[in-house]
Structure prediction request, 704 residues.
Amino acid sequence: MTKVHNFSAGPSILPQEAIQACVEGIQNFSGTGLSLLEVSHRGKEFVRVVEETQATIKELMDIPEGYEILFLGGGASMQFLMVAYNLLENKGAYLKTGVWAANAVKEAKLFGTVDVVASSEDANYNYIPKNYVIPTDADYFHCTSNNTIYGSQMQSFPESPVTMVCDMSSDILSRPVDVSKFGLIYAGAQKNMGPAGVTVVIVKKDILGKVTRQIPSMMNYAVHIKSETMFNTPPVFPIFAMLQNLKWVKKVGGVAEMQRRAEERANLLYNEIDQNPLFVGTVAFEDRSKMNVCFLLNDTSLEEKFNAAWKAAGISGIVGHRSVGGYRASMYNALPMESVEALVNVMRTFNS
Amino acid sequence: MTKVHNFSAGPSILPQEAIQACVEGIQNFSGTGLSLLEVSHRGKEFVRVVEETQATIKELMDIPEGYEILFLGGGASMQFLMVAYNLLENKGAYLKTGVWAANAVKEAKLFGTVDVVASSEDANYNYIPKNYVIPTDADYFHCTSNNTIYGSQMQSFPESPVTMVCDMSSDILSRPVDVSKFGLIYAGAQKNMGPAGVTVVIVKKDILGKVTRQIPSMMNYAVHIKSETMFNTPPVFPIFAMLQNLKWVKKVGGVAEMQRRAEERANLLYNEIDQNPLFVGTVAFEDRSKMNVCFLLNDTSLEEKFNAAWKAAGISGIVGHRSVGGYRASMYNALPMESVEALVNVMRTFNS
Prediction:
């Protein structure tokens, strides 16, 4: 079978050795003679998996004391709601940089006032707003570090006068981040962390307990913290699979190496886009994402022929989101350089 | 390696062929050349998995027209909240038969009045209340068909004058149920349906849209229905694994055969408990669960010796929940008779 170059936007490529470790866990988990799929989540073997996953994230992201790590179901979309439930007393400040940020705004409005400090909606979210002011009377400031659909990325984070909350679903673990600047970071696992089915929440304990509303148990970060992220049955397999991926990240060099690889991949592809007269990038130069590279054919009548060319090269998953069109190459942590080289080779030799 | 007899309360035993199909899906999903863990949830291969899972549940449970099937994250505990969010306008009626039912009551109280129509809390939930009256002015009546911790089970359902909602997490697919009597059925998958990480919701569409509150998107059944259970990234692997298990249920004879097997297992074990002077059941005879069989040693000083005996026989997971003590043998759909025979054999030969 031809090798598939997997540029899927998420769920997305995982390292082969993590996939193999999942197979082994499903066949015989931790020497129990049982499948990972049929053991109690409260058994010592799985409790150890949860603890090791937390410890590995702490180590990889250099998370300071005072933060807790939760593994929740429901996806990042559930966090749009939980963030507001737990933190929004009077006013939440939001940076609107894409559809997911807009959804976060929408859910928060059910809980209080939302102040959109800046938005790039006017330009189909093709840039990251700058020079916005975060109101000092907001309960928190919410931003999205990387916008999967549009291919834009915050290259730095503001000095927020209030608790900073960040949806890092699509670029977590791809670059060093100073966690101490954030009160809460969340990420659906299915891009850089693992498979679909679990969302990682990194929360500073002292930001909680400040709203007056009663919070339903499953929405309450404090409840999940108190029960060591086992308030109810957690998504067992997705957590296990995430750990296998995190072990690989650690083994090959951690977040610094992930950053080096991301830059190497992104430089190669953006250089081709910029040098090749057939293609054009869709995002403001300084806001280009190193995870999701969006580009168009200048002559859309060539699409059919170009599509045939990349498909023939074993490339998968580069059709752009319907709201941008064209192409999107998602290049998460596990994507090897040879896949980017394969795509660039198709672009370079196309129609020439 | 000795065969393990897996009596785990959930996550719990799954058929070997479902486990093997999971391994194959992780290695090469549906001929894509990619792992199930790294494909888009919106690709045609996975959309087909979702549709086939829905169709198989419809067929196995003989679900009439007008119902939708959703696959959500967060576990049954999330449903305690979602049921109230979507259905509780003035008053919810609840049957309190265990800790999970009590948790459902607790969450619903945040949304309106809760009328506990009957409770067996006075006797540590060792029976199912009868002859209760469901108020006709309630928005819905909520019950728990099987109480995993206590080993009690509703042998029949009341004629409810209002929409009936049932948490069937621990006995779904173990006996035929007339779905048309229910407005909503939900079940965490990790007992009879599949692995942990997905919750099945079967909801009659016409019970929705009757509350005046604004419902957050992720809490809103109508939103999930409209997006064909893909409002956001679903728990991909747990859904796939569930389908493999459902295919096995269908192949071996469907729900009727699951019921026959459950009765055969339960009869064997309860007969031993009743005939053996060393043991005593903890639940009212007529309310005994065919899924979770709870029993005590009459002489607790024998516990250490009995524990050694069943462990030596390769039996796993029969330590009772801390709130009941003693022993609990959970006997879900995939548990073979030979495992029950192994346990009964240990009991029969113990100390004799």
